[in-house]
């Protein structure tokens, strides 16, 4: 019997341990090469593990177990695959005898998709076995894959092979009066990592928060005037986040201390001549902060498209490690959940984070008159080791001025 051990692969230099969140294939299932067999949860993302060879899957690790890089996850009996294939061939020969001669012989390329075609088929939910290849030696080309996905029939009710993901937290159940039930649920690896990073930020940085408020009237007027034209031209709405991100990017390049890191190993300050802004996105498994790079050089439309793409990937758990890494400054918007004011925690190794909050109509004094305006509280948490109090206040005031006069932002004044 030829048995191959499937081990936890090296994912990234910073990741030394993962959690086996769920099996995608049952114990004893006959699987094909490159077919996903399980999902790993790391401290940054959820990853699928493909089978190295085809054969009979033998579970070794259990769901929920913590594994180190190199630990054995499963074993695959390759003899079982050969026996299964032989059985299928015998059945096919009985059902339809093969002709005495053939015009051409198949080889390893026959029915095998190219890397680009494999990606398209995987995203479109189409099996390569259902596609006829028109490439050399019968290989499935990118064009074949695109046509197969476009002509994919409507799905019929069928048995779902992949089990439903386990709920991260227990669902509240109605109980009788004076119920005192308790339940224990293991923290997910991502939740554990979030906890460690937040505690580390509180313990290792001299974190302070400064507040201000911004009148959103001009932004409301801008969006109301140009929203339809913006959508018509770019196919996406102009949101508040792109305006705040562009304003922050402009001020970050003017005030490099807010955009800098402290390298504690060398006691050096690392300055950045670009603004990679991380955006806090809430997902079912926890908070992620993927960055949008070079915000200072992006248009509003480009930023909105990248943000929409990242948000969709975050909700679907499809963010890559590269998309999760980096960032020189963070923006979080608690206002979408109704938060009126908060003190956001710095996203290490960054030195500052801007907190946006709910927009509320409030009475304010303008030119000696009390008027009702849509107001938002802004909070800037910063590391006092590198950013002075005057610098933090000035940064927040500059962002406030750009938001209240977006024309100056558009004209780069």
In short:
By secondary structure, this protein is an alpha+beta fold.
Overall description:
The chain is an alpha+beta fold and 413 residues long. It folds into three domains: 100 residues, Beta Barrel (OB fold (Dihydrolipoamide Acetyltransferase, E2P)), CATH 2.40.50; 44 residues, Dihydrolipoamide Transferase (Irregular); 221 residues, 2-Layer Sandwich (Chloramphenicol Acetyltransferase). Helices cover 31% and strands 24% of the residues. It contains ten helices and 19 strands. Strands 9, 12, 15, 16, 17, 18 and 19 form a seven-stranded mixed sheet that branches. Strands 1-8-6-3 form a four-stranded antiparallel sheet. A hairpin with a 4-residue loop joins strand 10 and strand 11. Helix 2 packs parallel to helix 3 and helix 6 crosses helix 9. It is globular, with a radius of gyration of 27 Å. The N and C termini lie far apart (73 Å).
Could you say what the CATH topology of the largest domain is called? Chloramphenicol Acetyltransferase
Q: How many alpha or pi helices?
A: 10
CATH top level assignment of the largest domain: Alpha Beta
Beta-strand fraction estimate: 15-25%
What's the N-to-C terminus distance?
73 Å
């Amino acid at each position: 019997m030829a048995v191959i051990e499937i081990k936890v692969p090296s994912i990234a230099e910073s990741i030394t341990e993962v959690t086996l969140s769920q099996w995608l294939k049952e114990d004893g299932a006959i699987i094909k090469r490159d077919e996903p067999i399980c999902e790993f949860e790391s401290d940054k993302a959820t990853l699928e593990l493909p089978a190295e060879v085809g054969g009979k899957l033998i579970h070794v690790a259990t769901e929920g177990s913590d594994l180190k890089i190199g630990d054995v996850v499963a074993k695959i009996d390759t003899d079982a695959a050969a026996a299964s294939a032989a059985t299928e061939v015998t059945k096919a020969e009985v059902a339809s005898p093969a002709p005495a001669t053939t015009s051409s012989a198949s080889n390893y390329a026959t029915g095998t998709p190219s890397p680009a075609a494999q990606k398209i088929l995987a995203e479109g939910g189409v099996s390569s076995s259902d596609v006829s290849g028109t490439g050399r030696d019968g290989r499935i080309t990118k064009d074949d894959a695109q046509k197969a996905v476009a002509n994919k029939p409507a799905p019929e009710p069928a048995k779902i092979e992949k089990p439903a993901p386990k709920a991260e937290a227990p669902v509240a159940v109605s109980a009788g009066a004076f119920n005192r039930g308790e339940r224990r649920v293991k923290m997910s690896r991502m939740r554990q990592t979030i906890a460690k990073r937040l505690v580390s930020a509180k313990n290792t940085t001299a974190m302070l928060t400064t507040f201000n408020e911004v009148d959103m009237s001009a932004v409301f007027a801008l969006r109301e005037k140009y929203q339809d034209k913006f959508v018509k031209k770019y196919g996406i709405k102009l949101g508040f986040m792109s305006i705040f991100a562009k304003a922050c990017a402009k001020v970050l390049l003017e005030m490099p201390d807010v955009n800098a890191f402290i390298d504690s190993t060398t006691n050096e300050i690392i300055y950045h001549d670009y603004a990679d802004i991380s955006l806090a996105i809430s997902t079912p498994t926890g908070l992620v902060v993927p960055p949008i790079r070079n915000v200072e050089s992006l248009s509003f439309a480009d930023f909105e498209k990248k943000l929409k793409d990242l948000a969709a990937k975050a909700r679907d758990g499809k963010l890559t490690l590269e998309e999760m890494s980096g960032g020189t400054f963070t923006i979080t918007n608690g206002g979408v959940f109704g938060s009126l004011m908060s003190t956001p925690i710095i996203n290490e190794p960054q030195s500052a984070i801007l907190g946006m909050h709910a927009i509320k109509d409030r009475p304010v004094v303008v030119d000696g008159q009390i008027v009702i305006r849509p107001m938002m509280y802004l909070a800037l948490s910063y590391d006092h080791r590198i950013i002075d109090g005057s610098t933090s206040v000035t940064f927040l005031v500059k962002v406030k001025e750009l938001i209240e006069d977006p024309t100056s932002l558009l004209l780069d004044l």
